[in-house]
Specification:
By secondary structure, this protein is α/β, with parallel strands linked by helices. It has 3 domains: 88 residues, ATPase, nucleotide binding domain (Nucleotidyltransferase, domain 5); 139 residues, Rossmann fold, CATH 3.40.50; 184 residues, Nucleotidyltransferase, domain 5. The longest helix has 22 residues. 48% of the residues are buried. The chain contains 16 helices and 17 strands. The protein is 39% helix and 23% strand. Helix 2 packs across helix 6.
Length: 456
């Protein structure tokens, strides 16, 4: 059986392959899925990838699967590890961080100002896949970014470096990297913070994904990936963001929530309301991603249990102390019993509510000469029309819709969360990440497939 495109999602533990056909028609089809353990430890992810394709053939009842193109998303080997270095933390460093997160990066270090010895030590320990340098509005402060570029260029690391700072530094930045023979590792892009209170993160996001694709073959276990994947490869969280942006163009402002075993990712694509923008203290990107590394329903389950409290869990689930203790001690990645489902749904609800409240901005009172003034800071979600649930928990749990409906209900009055009029959509086929990378090649087909999965 032959398909137009296979999309592989190469995860840290599992590799999933999704098959699509009829992509150049008005009725593109998601045909089937196969999966296999990811084989990073074997130092070759193509072993697991081949087995996932064999599993796809088995599931479809065919002897062999053929395809015109194989494209991929990846979060294997730690995903896209980045460090980000700006001038002022709340300005250029924050703008650079927003760009990196939106591209799907896992940010391991953010610094502001000149790099210190301890910062340099941490960079070498982290071994990032990409380093991002920003700093200075256009035609503003120059020296900090130049100093940081000198330090980073001098490190004994062959890591791609993206410069997204003051445009007046371009020539000198190029000279710095040429002098140490690393010009081929340098990417120059538009300033992420060209003017005070102006963000310009999309050009940097695109270059981060381009650099990731070009250099991913150097990540552990990925050296043979290009032997099979002959199309785009982007970070999995970045693919979910791409899908969210495509969907927003079609249906309006939205938030996508992805609850995983280790983390909870939230992607919002909204300009916010005019009313809030008038009192916003600092600009926010239209497309924003936050990742809560402490909120996962399997690997980080204990963190959520601690947030809720064991006594509260007993009361809410109507379980004994022994039952709750047994569920915690013998927690499974995929629930099977009624008690396990109730437990995981409560964990997921907490992850959804806490991560949504962390992602959303809020109102705060400022006291100035004339008295008290109410201002807003952070991401405004009040104009969001839809909340989309993706990821294992929010596509498979029986009470997934009611869990997501808790987001607006959790508002204590000061948060810029979606209103109770928001509609819930579920990525029933669990293919949003695949469609994000597919949208880079065939946006129309990706959108049609997304609407099918969401039952729009």
């Amino acid at each position: 059986m032959k398909f137009d495109i296979l999309v592989a999602e190469i995860g840290s533990t599992t590799t999933v392959v999704n098959a699509f056909s009829d992509l150049n028609t008005l009725d593109p089809k998601f045909v089937g899925q196969g999966q296999s353990p990811t084989t990073v430890k074997e130092d070759d992810v193509t072993i697991g990838l081949s087995k996932a394709i064999e599993d796809l053939a088995h599931n479809l009842g065919v002897e062999k699967v053929e395809y015109d193109e194989l494209i991929a998303t990846s979060s294997a080997a730690g995903g896209l590890k980045m460090t980000v270095h700006g001038l002022v933390y709340d300005m250029t460093a924050k703008a650079a961080k927003e760009a990196a997160l939106g591209a799907g990066a896992n940010i391991h270090l953010v610094t502001a100002g000149r790099l210190r010895r301890t910062d340099v030590k941490r960079i070498t320990e982290i071994k990032p896949n990409i380093i991002l340098i920003a700093g200075g509005v256009d035609h503003g402060e120059r020296d900090t970014a130049l100093y940081n570029a000198e330090v980073i260029a001098g490190l004994e690391m062959n890591v791609p470096v993206i410069y997204a700072g003051n445009i007046d530094n371009h020539e000198e930045i190029i000279e710095i990297f040429e002098e140490v023979g690393k010009r081929d590792l340098l990417y120059i892009v538009e300033n992420v913070y060209p003017k005070i209170d102006m963000l310009n993160v999309e050009p940097t996001r695109k270059v981060i994904q381009d650099a990731f694709e070009e250099h991913i073959i150097h990540a552990p276990g990925m050296s043979h990936v290009r032997e099979m994947v002959n199309g785009p490869i982007i970070p999995t969280p970045g693919a979910v963001m791409e899908a969210s942006k495509v969907l927003k163009e079609e249906i309006g402002d939205l938030v996508t929530i992805d609850v995983g075993g280790a983390t909870t990712d939230i992607h919002s694509v909204t300009e916010g309301s005019e009313e809030v923008s008038r009192v916003l203290l600092a600009p926010e990107p239209v497309a924003k991603r936050t990742v809560e590394g402490d909120l996962g329903v399997y690997v980080n389950m204990l963190n959520i249990v601690e947030l809720i409290g064991e006594e509260k869990l007993q009361q809410q689930l109507e379980f004994s102390a022994d039952q709750v203790r047994d569920l915690v001690e013998n927690h499974v990645p995929i629930p099977k019993t009624e008690a396990q489902f109730k437990f995981v749904e409560r964990l997921t609800k907490e992850a959804v509510i806490v991560s949504a409240n962390r992602h959303a901005g809020g109102y705060r009172d400022l006291f100035k000469g004339g008295g008290k003034k109410s201002m807003a800071e952070g991401k405004d979600l009040t104009s969001v029309k839809y909340i989309v649930g993706t990821g294992g928990a929010l596509t498979r749990l029986p009470n997934r819709v009611n869990i997501i409906k808790e987001v607006p209900l959790s508002n204590k009055g000061h948060k810029l969360l979606p209103t109770i009029q928001v509609e819930v959509l579920i990525d029933n086929d669990y293919i949003m990440a695949s469609l994000g990378v597919l949208s880079k090649e065939n946006k129309e087909a990706a959108l049609l497939l997304m609407k099918k999965s969401l039952k729009i």
